[in-house]
Amino acid sequence: MNTNASNILSSLYGRTTSGTSTTLSPTVAARVQQALQGQKGTIDKLNAGLTQDQTKLSGLGQLQSALAAFGALAEGIGGAGLATSATSSAKGVLTATTGASAKAGTYQVDVRQLAQNQVLNSATQPLADTKIGTGTAATVRIDIGTVTADGFKAASGSSKTITIDSSNNTLDGIAKALKEAGVDATVVKGEGGYALQVKGKDGAAQAIRIGVTGDAALKAAIGFDPAAPSDTGMKQAQAAQDALLTVDGKQIASASNSVGTAIAGTTLTLTAAGKTDVTVSQDTSQIGKNVAAFVQGYNDLTARLATLQAGALKGDATLGNISSQLSQMVKTGGGLADAGVSLDSKGQLVLDEKKLKAAIAADPSAVTKLFTNEGRGLADKLDKKIDAFSADGGALARSRTQVTRDFEQLADRKDKLARSLTAQAQALAQLYTMQEQSGGTGSLLDLLG
């Protein structure tokens, strides 16, 4: 027999409440527990409801994860289109990779020049810490822009300024100040000594102009105008320029040697000037891999749904509805059998690899369109349906909101009942203790004075 009021309450509704830990006599404890025993059925129902809601919320989370995993797979297959690969007829000119929207065909490419960055070098100094200029405070301004027939045109917001004075008027000091301003600057060692080297980014619009005011000697050492180079200052070792190429006669300029707009759905990585034919063709091996991945992914999903139906979400209407809709979409997919895909008695997909291989060999485009066809393929439709299930306001969100609301209501009811029982237990414990001490007399009115 528990002789502690706290233990009595805990045994009734699974919660220890502060303020009721006074040790009672066995007789008083038994009377208190007997008096409150009638509430145990209500408490048990509340606890069972809370446990059920917690289990269901966990199950809904698992359902969300399972749908998301298959949705990502379906989206990948649905967005891939007809699997393709690209080859170049000339080695060393470029490499090509295809994406979702690549179209089969042969394209004539003429790479005229590669994109490159500007490289500037100063005159050499005996040492990296040799003083340059007078040491008078000077402002060095770096502009990024484009060299045109009318001169240098700085890009808006591209200017950066640093101050060079007697504390940092060396190659090391200037390089450090430029780096801190975000400019790629280093001190390099050559046969004649040390020089300041400044590099820009790839592309014609990344040319660098260096202006110096406040110290003529410093300007003569590191100043540079790409539109009007002088005999003094920095020397240009490499000019900023775009990649220039033609594709089937169409001229294209790119600030990068990775060109994604020349051929639809295909990225060209330029490596040298030259002519080549780029052939984009179907990659039938990837089609088979996509179909096999789809079958495995769907079977993994249905197995997970079956586990949830037998456990955490047993009898759940939302899960039943989702499972039914997905199954119906696969059953009415149309043409899957022609690609070697069928449904067994348990609702799992079965893949006949021999039949799939024959279907791909006969018409790879037809097989692909079964799964992805501008939103009309099975993978396209399943991806869209899963998005709808998982969206705000979708079936999963509505179910989760409903269960959460029910859980909160049950928790509130239990909390209120717990407070009520605590008050009753305290009052009864005092009453029964008083009666025991007074030989059986006394009532609640006596406790109230």
From TrEMBL:
What InterPro entries does the record point to? Answer: FliD (IPR040026), FliD_C (IPR010809), FliD_N (IPR003481)
Domain (Flagellar hook-associated protein 2 C-terminal): residue spans on this chain: 240-435
Q: Which GO terms describe its cellular component?
A: bacterial-type flagellum filament cap; bacterial-type flagellum hook; extracellular region
Keyword Repeat applies: no
Which domain of life does this protein belong to? Bacteria
Which residues does the UniProt record annotate as the domain Flagellar hook-associated protein 2 N-terminal? 32-118
Q: Which GO terms describe its biological process?
A: bacterial-type flagellum-dependent cell motility; cell adhesion
**Main location class:** secreted
Query: Which intervals of the chain form a coiled coil?
Result: none
Write out the annotated subcellular location: Secreted; Bacterial flagellum
Q: Which UniProt keywords apply?
A: Bacterial flagellum, Cell projection, Cilium, Coiled coil, Flagellum, Secreted
PANTHER family recorded for this chain?
A: FLAGELLAR CAP/ASSEMBLY PROTEIN FLID, FLAGELLAR HOOK-ASSOCIATED PROTEIN 2
The record's comment on protein family reads: Belongs to the FliD family.
Q: What does this protein do?
A: Required for morphogenesis and for the elongation of the flagellar filament by facilitating polymerization of the flagellin monomers at the tip of growing filament. Forms a capping structure, which prevents flagellin subunits (transported through the central channel of the flagellum) from leaking out without polymerization at the distal end.
Q: Assembly and interactions?
A: Homopentamer.
The protein's name is: Flagellar hook-associated protein 2
> From which organism does this entry originate?
Pseudoduganella armeniaca
